[in-house]
Amino acid sequence: MWAQSHHYDSAPEVTVTDESRVGESLDADAKADAAAEAPDDETDEASQEATQEEDAAEAEAAEEETATRSEATDEFWQEVGVDPIKVALPRDVIGFTLRAYRPASQVTLPETEAAEDDEDDPFTARDRARAAEDAARAAEAGELTEAEQAEFDRDAGADAEETTEDKAGEEETTEDAEELSEEDIAAAELAEQLANQEVPVFLSHRGKLLLFATPEALVSFVNSDAEHDLRQLDTWATLVKRLRPEDVVPTDEDTYELDLVVENLRAGHDAWDPMLLISAGEVARDLGHALRLEPVITALSPGSPLDDLDEALRAVAAGGISGRFARRRLRRIGAQQASLGWRTVIGKISAATDWRD
After folding, report:
1. Is it the case that residue 134 has pLDDT exceeding 60?
2. Whole-number mean pLDDT of the chain?
3. 71 vs 139, which has greater pLDDT?
4. Domain ranges for the chain
5. In terms of Cα–Cα distance, which of 325, 208, 321, 330 is closest to 277?
6. Contact of 124 with 117, CB cutoff 8 Å
């Protein structure tokens, strides 16, 4: 009887214990299932991210492949001696244009008030050299006329004292003529050097850079009868005949992001991008001389703060010991001064741009 009672009394305990264990087992199974499902979710998310990255990489690769120039295109630009360039200016002005380099004696740019007295401008320097050469020749011709007149006076029966004075004057004239001849030679050599110096010429007109939003727009303009500064090139007819939109693919070296310069300078010395700023200086100098932008030429002239910045950046890019010293020099260049100077330069270039969107 006790045994039955004991068995009866103990049965509920066993039952409760079993239910508790079953509950715990169910909870454990649920947790296990959740734990098993969690990695699957993470795997799915990782798989999705990987897929997105692959898609982005493929899109970027396709874009790069589209922008790659063919060998035929490279040969075409080399043959005509012209390059397509891409320029980005503030306010989302990004466009294409053309640039060539030719000896100064082969190109003529429209006269402007800018850079008339700039000694570094190759065009005005060439004109000054030629003017000095003409003046020297005129002076020499004038002195020879005086010598001839003195000789005529002697033949007319001047007295011996006057003859002696004339001879002395003739010797002085000869010395002066020799000095002028040296100046004449120096002026001629300078004129020849400047004539052989290559200068930039852009697709521009009346001091305005022509910038096109698409390659198709640029090609359409090239095929038109519109006037511009590149028409004087000896290879222009060949370029017009063969140029296609797919040829208008600037290289990395011919792509200039002027819209990022001021922002980069404001970020501080540690954030300065040497290649960005160096390339900006190159195209700005070219545009300054080609468009005769005196403020741009002056701001980037040798010895100016922006020129010192450019030299230091080039030394940093070159690396080595000189690069370490250059980094110290950069520290002494005021970021605010540099950004203000470049903002002026870019503002002048933007004002001299004829945006064809």
Report:
1. no
2. 76
3. 71
4. 12-68, 72-113+199-356, 122-196
5. 330
6. yes
